[in-house]
Amino acid sequence: MLKADGSVSRAIYQPIEATPDEALKPGKWSGSTYTRPVRHQQWTGKIADLPSEERSLNNNYFAAWGEFKSPDELPQAFVKKAPEGLPDGKLVVDYKREELGLVVAYRWQETLTDIVTIDDMHQAREELADLLIPLGQKILDRALGEEYDTTKLFDWFQQTGQPWAFEMIDVLVARGGLREPTLEQIDLALAQICGRYGLVLTDSTGKLLSDAQCCEARVKYAEKVLRECLRRRDGGEVPATDIEKILQWMDMKDRLENSKEQLQEYEAYKAAAKAVVAENFGDDEKLSEVLQPLAARILGLYLSEPLDSHDFQYTLEVPGTIVKTNGTLLSEGIVRWTFAGSEAYPFGYTMECESLVAQTDFERQLLGRSVLDTREAIIDYVELIRSDEELRGAMAACVAEKCTAPLYEGPKDRGLFSESQTMFAAMRRLLKLPE
């Protein structure tokens, strides 16, 4: 809750692993406790009403509440740990209280940050391709043996697969920059790119195929690429069983009905991968240490770890009447945001709210009555005063001097078609002053 004097009451409830150590320290909050996970729909009462419990395996959530003199004093209560060398994701508050004469405006913005920038994302995806394509070729060469030549196949990855993947990443970035794109819109945009490369994932009407149909189409496309690009050095035809093994190794086909011999062949692919990784990086963990920062720089902190996602439900109460927000209004002065951490991709998710409070006492002192008595009147007043600096100064003088004379004395430019002159006249009309 944001109060009129700029002080803040805040309560949090979240996983312990998403809470910085600093926020867990005694004395940071008026009260705190550990508790079990509770679904949003199951909440009853207030966070501060939770019983006091100790941290345990089951009590793996942290709840806290407190009063703070200003938003600057709020503890940093959330962190999304980034791979080493990259900034963590966090919540950043931008608060402004704006005196506008007869109205006070309160603007609250709180951003869940991500780490993606366009230039760095482009650099990271180049680095990732430069790492994975040669690594994949070494693994496949080791698994297939000397009788196969994979040169043309990995030329395809560099000349076709790489730009294809880059285009799809660009779509994710562009769509993520829009407010609330639907998954279907994103999937359709990705399918259109795939179609340009020959992988058709839509029907004749442009509608997306079912998940099963898309999976089948991808497998057939991969089989086609392997048949056309994988070569036996003796000039013979590549057996379908070898293509099948490669697709299983790539997790494009399941292995549920494999014979014991087929499973052994699959294990040979895994062994080849393990050996190549060991030769080039030491082990899988060391490879992961290289891949994770690249993935985060491309897909952000939240999309790159889909199994470690966070869902947010954030409610804010502000003074006065909310006139602008990208959340869901619960009442004149309360707004709620519900979103997934992945929605912060690529440049952060900002919760925005602006509320206005008419200074009724000032109105009565100045005008003898209240005229800013509707939402529309308050909004019109604020739009006028923000549109002209001279008018803003004149209204401040009116309030300070407790008279309306400054609205008649200004502006400096008194020309017939002066924009400021028009604004001053509009303000006098809005305040129902005589001409």
Outline:
With 435 residues, this protein is of the alpha+beta class.
Secondary-structure content class: alpha+beta
What's the end-to-end separation, in Å? 42 Å
Question: Taking Cα atoms only, what radius of gyration do you get, to the nearest Å?
Answer: 31 Å
How are the strands of the largest sheet arranged? 4-5-6-13-10
Number of strands: 13
Number of domains: 3
Overall pLDDT, averaged?
Answer: 91
What's the tally of helices?
Answer: 13
Helix content: 40-55%
Strand coverage percent: 15-25%
Described by strand count, sense and barrel closure, the largest sheet is: 5 strands, antiparallel
| Series of H and E elements | EHEEEEEHEHHHEHHHEEEEEHHHHH
How would you characterize the overall build of this protein?
By secondary structure, the chain is α+β, with helices and mostly antiparallel strands. It has helices at residues 21-24, 118-144, 151-176, 183-196, 211-229, 240-249, 260-281, 284-303, 360-367, 375-386, 389-401, 406-409, 419-430; strands spanning 8-15, 31-35, 61-68, 79-80, 89-99, 103-112, 148-149, 231-232, 311-317, 321-325, 328-331, 334-340, 349-358. The chain folds into 3 domains: 1-77, no CATH class; 118-303, no CATH class; 360-430, no CATH class. The strands form 4 sheets. A 5-stranded antiparallel β-sheet has the order 4-5-6-13-10, with helices on one face. A hairpin with a 2-residue loop joins β11 and β12 (334-340).
